[in-house]
Please model this.
Amino acid sequence: MVKIVIENMGQKEVTGKAGTLALRLLHENFVDWMHACGGKGRCTTCKMIIVNGTDSLGTLTDVEARYRSVGELAVTERLACQTKILGDCTVRTPAEYKLPHQTYTD
Ligand code: FES
Model:
């Protein structure tokens, strides 16, 4: 079992099976997270800011590496639809991809 803490959603904790993609894990726990392209790696709206637990994430995918190489994915950011969660981590929702109906605490 792994855990994602969403810092700017009141430290909300979601849990699931190790190796699950972050976006799926969020959805399995009924957390709405922006994913405009439907998780196909074509939009970057599913960005997560990694606060801690970088070592608990699967390796950067080719899709993420491409976005990083053109400056659209910072070293502190990962795509939820691409990133496997292998251990506990803490993330934040980027300001530009907050959902209007979701409650944030920052
Ligand atoms: S949902 Fe579009 S890149 Fe992740």
About this structure: The chain is about 15% helix and 25% strand. Strands lie at 2-6, 12-16, 20-21, 47-52, 77-79, 84-85, 89-92.
